[in-house]
Backbone:
């Protein structure tokens, strides 16, 4: 299946000089987690909700009346990811998935003749996989139990562990989500988004 068949067309973009409040509003309005950063027709960066959480702590910075010299980012260009990994619209879905897994990224801008024509996200890939599973021709080969593809052993935390412990385990095991156990019972889960939000709030508090 080609990327062009399941990508999101006409993606919403943001300029590198745009204030972070504008990017946050765009994500909230459209329910997005990723925004291509564009200058003219060139994709110069990618901005994720993870980047925003780390940079702002989830706060609209303008409302905090911080001093001008506060050591916090103000514009998209200060926290966007660059350079950007892109795919062509005629590439196949498995190749896009491989890029995302190897680069540990959640979205890929899609180009056609050098111009941005779409975006492929983890959600797009899951939807494409769902559609593939519904095809009778692939039903048998994709009807596998979860235990065949799950990660084991499971890396966990306890409620009393520190934020540093969570960061270390995410880095050591290259994971984004860690279940929290208390007396072997699941009581929660910590994601890298939670970690970035906590770090961002600490940076705002320091500022």
Residues:
């Amino acid at each position: 299946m080609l990327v062009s068949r399941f990508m999101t067309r006409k993606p919403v973009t943001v300029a590198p000089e745009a204030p972070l409040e504008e990017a946050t509003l765009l994500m909230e309005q459209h329910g997005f987690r990723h925004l291509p950063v564009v200058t003219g027709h060139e994709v110069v960066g990618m901005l994720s909700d993870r980047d925003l959480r780390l940079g702002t702590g989830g706060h609209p910075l303008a409302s905090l009346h911080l001093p001008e010299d506060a050591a916090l980012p103000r514009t998209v260009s200060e926290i966007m990811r660059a350079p950007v990994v892109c795919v062509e619209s005629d590439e196949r879905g498995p190749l896009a998935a491989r890029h995302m897994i190897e680069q540990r990224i959640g979205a890929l801008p899609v180009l056609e003749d050098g111009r941005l024509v779409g975006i492929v996200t983890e959600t797009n890939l899951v939807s494409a996989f769902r559609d593939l599973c519904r095809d009778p021709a692939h039903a048998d080969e994709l009807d596998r139990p979860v235990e065949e593809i799950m990660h084991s052993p499971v890396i966990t935390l306890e409620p009393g562990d520190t934020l540093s412990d969570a960061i270390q385990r995410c880095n050591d095991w290259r994971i984004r989500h860690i279940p929290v156990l208390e007396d072997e019972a699941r009581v929660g889960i910590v994601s890298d988004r939670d970690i970035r939000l906590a770090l961002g709030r600490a940076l705002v508090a320091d500022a």
